[in-house]
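ok so dumb question maybe but i'm new to this and my supervisor (M.) told me to 'just get the structure for MotA/TolQ/ExbB proton channel family protein' and walked off. so i did the thing. is this what she meant?? sequence i used:
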Amino acid sequence: MWPLLLCSILALAIILERFWTLRSKRVAPKALLSDVMARLRDDRMTLDYIRTMQAQSGLSFIFASGLLNSKHGRRAMKESIQEAANHVIHELERFMSTLGTIAAIAPLLGLLGTVVGMIKVFNVLMEEGAGNTQLLAGGISEALLTTAAGLAVAIPALVFHRYFSRRIDELVVNMEQQSTKLIDVLNADGGND
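this is what came out, is it supposed to look like this??
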């Protein structure tokens, strides 16, 4: 039961952290593209503003990378945006493999508890015979509790792992679309590849 308790605490911490980290306004603020477009249109885009963008959100980090390389042509800009996007995606997927591992091993830990409980039941049967039902019930109860605890940890962990994976996919698609718009605007004159 102790490993299952540790898994449940770790899963809860990851779930709370992912809810906080994967908020849209933290990863891909809706007004960012229009703000960048307005600054470009009004010729208010400065190097200082681009540098401050790098620390604001995942999408602003990607935009800043593209803006810093926009003078080198469309291909260089796309490559820098792709590199920045890979970094952002890596950050978005942080702890997801741990959450998936917890979802996978929790039922196995429950099963291990079941096996240990059944071994105790058979040891009681060998030593005491089938007449002592209290001792038998204790071993069976332990077996059932660990199975239930393993499933109680695994099911929410799996549900949230799937939810967060889908959320990450949605954020990535959104960031790709906005990055493509930025590239198109900056290279609207049919810029050089």
